[in-house]
Amino acid sequence: MGQELPAGNGRRLLLLGAAALVLPRPALAAAPGPGASMRVEGHHTRLTLPFSDPVAWQLSAQASPPALLLDLPRHGWHGPAQQQGSGCIAGLRFAATRAGGRLTIALMGPIATPRVTQQDKALVLELRPGGGPAFARMAAAGRLAHGGPAPRQHASLPLVMLDPGHGGRDPGAIGANGTHEKRITLAVAHELKRQLEATGHCRVALTRTRDVFVPLAERVEMARRRQAALLLSIHADAVSAENARAARGASVYTLAETASDPLAAALANRENLADRAGGLRLPSVPPEVLAILFSLMRQETRAGSDRLARQVVQRLEGQVPLLPHSHRRAGFAVLKAPDMPAALVELGFLSHPEDEAALAKPAHRARLAGALAEAVQGFLARPHLAGLG
């Protein structure tokens, strides 16, 4: 069985069902055929979504116009692209996305929190009308429910190493309202891991999975030891009080010995104070051969890192506010592995009140994770074309 939403809503649905027995209403079956089926009993609508195979899924809500959004990373949807609705449902519309597919369940109006049950090859949603303010809060909360079969992990798939910044005794930046960077980065990393694994195109590991301190050198070495295809470090930094209003938005950094601007230099210096990068294990060869090998390795790695950064900027653009000159360069220690493409993403600035408020919301973090998942997939799709965006 899959996840169900809070039991209180289930009890209310049972009460509605009992009321329907006392005051019977005709049961209406709608939309027969290969797609979704809908059964209406009074104010209660039961929506059954069949799939060809067990699928991963994520359900969220949209306030205006009112709708439920069912994201299917590996969609398996074989119903019609559009379908008429019944009861609480105005209609269904399926569209392919870069991340898989999305089924939009257009609603006649606001609904109460849906009860969701996952069967082997079907998803069942039980819906009833609800209040507008409560529905708006539900939409702002982000993900309502998710589930699906555990993805099979194949050793041949590329490994993506995610690095949630700071942790344990090092909280990182702290916003004016007490938001800790270490908690924001870990929440985004877990959501990003879930989304990437749902595609079945890669394996994912985290440098930390809980609130613990991990030295910078160990983070780099962890990714290198496991031969990761890339390292994506996730941060949400802060600037001084006099610059707090000026610095806002997401950005991405790749390695450079000389920082591209003073802000990049300041951020890198602060991150590197805690630790230093680990060393590179190189073969025993003559010094002149070693120099050539190191130079070639460094060039290829930096080209790959730049391409990863371009993918991140492209996917974030239009989704969240961006810092001007979104792709910057600095000497972050966590980016210094010369044999592995790496980028550091600043999700926003906790020193800016609007960024802090947004990062505290699960819906905003899920949107960031979705954009980063698309960026990683775009990078992995063409790992050897370093010269192209």
CATH C-level label of the largest domain:
Alpha Beta
- Give the ordered list of helices and strands: HEEEEEEEEEEHEEHEHEEHHEEHH
CATH topology of the largest domain: Aminopeptidase
Helical content stands at 25-40%
CATH superfamily of the largest domain: Zn-dependent exopeptidases
Question: How would you portray this structure in words?
Answer:
The protein is α+β, with helices and mostly antiparallel strands and 389 residues long. The chain has two domains: 7-147, Immunoglobulin-like, CATH 2.60.40; 159-381, Aminopeptidase (3-Layer(aba) Sandwich). It is 31% helix and 26% strand. The protein contains eight helices and 17 strands. The strands form three sheets. Strands 6-7-8-5-4-11 form a six-stranded antiparallel sheet. Helix 3 (181-199) crosses helix 8 (362-381) and helix 6 (287-316) packs across helix 8 (362-381).
Short description, anyone?
The protein is built from eight helices and 17 strands.
Please render the helix and strand layout as text:
Elements: H1 7-22, E1 28-30, E2 37-41, E3 44-50, E4 57-62, E5 67-72, E6 82-84, E7 89-97, E8 100-107, E9 115-118, E10 122-127, H2 132-140, E11 143-147, E12 159-164, H3 181-199, E13 203-206, H4 216-225, E14 230-237, E15 250-255, H5 262-272, H6 287-316, E16 322-330, E17 342-349, H7 353-359, H8 362-381
Parallel strand pairs: 12-13, 12-14, 14-17, 15-16
Antiparallel strand pairs: 1-2, 2-3, 3-10, 4-5, 4-11, 5-8, 6-7, 7-8, 9-10, 15-17
Helix pairs in contact: 3-8, 6-8
